[in-house]
Amino acid sequence: MTRNQPVAAQPPGTVPPEISTLRQLRASGHQLRTVKQELRHNLLERMRAGEDAFPGIIGFGQTVLPHLERAIIAGHDVILLGERGQGKTRLIRTLTGLLDDWTPVVAGCEINDHPYAPVCARCRRLAADQGDDLAVSWRPRADRYGEKLATPDTSVGDLIGDIDPVKVAEGRTLGDPETIHFGLLPRTNRGIFCLNELPDLAERIQVSLLNVLEERDIAVRGYALRLPLDLVLVASANPEDYTNRGRIITPLKDRFGAEIRTHYPVSLESELALIDQEARIAWDAADPGARVPAHLIQVIARFTRLVRASPAVDSRSGVSARFAIAAAESVAASAVRRAAITGEDQPVARASDLPSVISTLRGKVEFEVSEEGREQEVLDHLLRRATGDTFRALLGNADLSGLLARFADGGVVETGDLVPAADLLRRIGEVPGLAKIMDRLKMDGSESPGQAAAALEFALEGLYLMRRLSKDAIDGGAVYRT
Questions:
Q1: Which residues of 77-103 are buried (b: 16+ CB within 10 A; e: fewer)?
Q2: Domain match, 340 and 296 both
Q3: Which of 261, 291, 310 is the C-terminal boundary of a domain?
Q4: Residue 247 burial (CB < 10 Å; 0-12/13-18/19+)?
Q5: Are 311 and 368 in contact (CB under 8 A)?
Q6: Do 194 and 334 belong together in one domain?
Q7: Among candidates 462, 460, 438, which has minimal Cα distance to 450?
Q8: CB 283: neighbour CB atoms within 10 A?
Q9: What's the DSSP call for residue 208?
């Protein structure tokens, strides 16, 4: 379950076989396999070797992936159903890793014909003329993936193909099959094609996919053309789209072999792992970004889960995994902003950076109509709950008497998102047991003012939420007192 990412490039150093003709290909012992046979064979090999067949996919191991593995082994085309931001497209893109590293194609073929069984008119003509001297090139697996976001303006020509007026203008007759400009599906022949948000595709366009899924061929306008395609078609859809924005026509649904439901992370651990994997906090060696302590990541993960479960939020819309990822990135950005303004050397995110992200993320959540006007209030409440739950889990039974002693004689501590760590530490003063607090929060580098300030500020906020301290909100910060 992850954000959408580009299809991975071929591993560095991988080179295609040194085979350039059909004669050499036959002599090598190469065997023709369909795409579905390829996926099945390579998946089973990885399973036998105990390797991860779907790297980077978190939280689906015992739920979604077994169904997908069965679909691949059965040779089925697949629809993935799930709310937004559940990693459907990312999961589909990992399927390219189950293809062979390289596959032979007729050199220059628009639809990647296999040299053993060319199907387009051009390649059949070349095979008849050149025989075993037919030129062969090699296609990497990363190039064997096609993807289209289904939109209402998508045409049959986009997916299947149409007459190419340029080729006709060159003097070819309209009846010549070589005047066809192939669409995305035939150009992904011998590969994997992903159709995202399938219900958004107009019903009359969905009809054009019926033959692709059942008879495995296409027809373009009035041409007497049978072009058998070898591909795997995988589609994604949101469940509510069946009735709201559009629907998948019944004959098309019937032609998909498997319909698999995805979901949001089931456990807190999966949510944390997803944020850790996907959030872009460090930019490069010259710009390492901010440190975001583990306890703040846990607050963000708990906050996301509470928002999903809230009755104030439209459950049909869902709360995307991108919500938590964007929250972590925004908290890190807040710390970097503080460092840039105040001159801190090492930006470290603190609890005071959390509230500022709510206004940024509010647009990612669809609320029930009855909650209109209360969006900020609902999110503020859920963030406090998430912070309190995290405090109880990490510091609930910790000895914080050293910190509370700071307030014994009416002391106050003012903090905020623009208060440097060194200033905050001076305002709090020496705290006995600070090292133990940081150890409970799994924070290293106790010498770092930023980390120490992050630990103490989180402890202050937790003590307030446990009603052991009071807090007065001020512009951009807070004042803690007894």
A1: bbbbbbbbbbbbbbbbbbbbbbbbebb
A2: yes
A3: 261
A4: middle
A5: yes
A6: no
A7: 438
A8: 11
A9: G
Q: Is 349 in a helix, a strand, or coil?
A: coil
How many Cα neighbours within 13 Å face the side chain of 300? Answer: 35
In a domain, 148, yes or no: yes
Q: What is the pLDDT of residue 151?
A: 87
Amino acid at 368: E
For residue 252, which amino acid is it? L
Rounded to an integer, what distance in angstroms lies between the CA atom of residue 458 and that of residue 132? 73
Same domain? 105 vs 245? yes
Q: What is the pLDDT of residue 392?
A: 97
Angle at 215 between CA 208 and CA 246, to 5 degrees: 30
**Size (the chain), residues:** 482
Backbone angles phi, psi at 405, to 5 degrees: -65, -25
| Alpha carbons 344 and 5: distance in angstroms, whole number | 33
User: For the chain, which residues score pLDDT lower than 70?
Assistant: 1-13, 165-178, 221-225, 240-245, 445-447
For residue 339, the one-letter residue type is: A
Tokens of 1: 């379950």
SS3 content of the chain, % helix, strand, coil (to 5): 45, 15, 40
Q: Please give the Cα distance from 476 to 235 (Å, whole number).
A: 46
List phi, psi (to 5°) of 52: -80, 115
Q: Number of folded domains in the chain?
A: 2
pLDDT on residue 168: 61
Over the stretch 428-449, which tens digit does the pLDDT of each residue have?
999 999 999 999 998 875 568 9
Report strand pairing: 136-140 vs 477-481: unpaired
- Are 356 and 326 in contact by the 8 Å Cβ rule? The answer is no
Q: What is the CATH number of the domain that holds 66?
A: 3.40.50.300
**What pLDDT sits at residue 3?**
43
Q: Is residue 468 part of a domain?
A: yes
Q: Which two tokens stand for residue 20?
A: 């350039």
Locate 457 and state its tokens. 């500020």
* In a shared domain, residues 158 and 279: no
Domain hosting 103: range is 22-261
Q: What does pTM read for this prediction?
A: 0.87
Single residue among 261, 276, 292 that ends a domain in this structure: 261
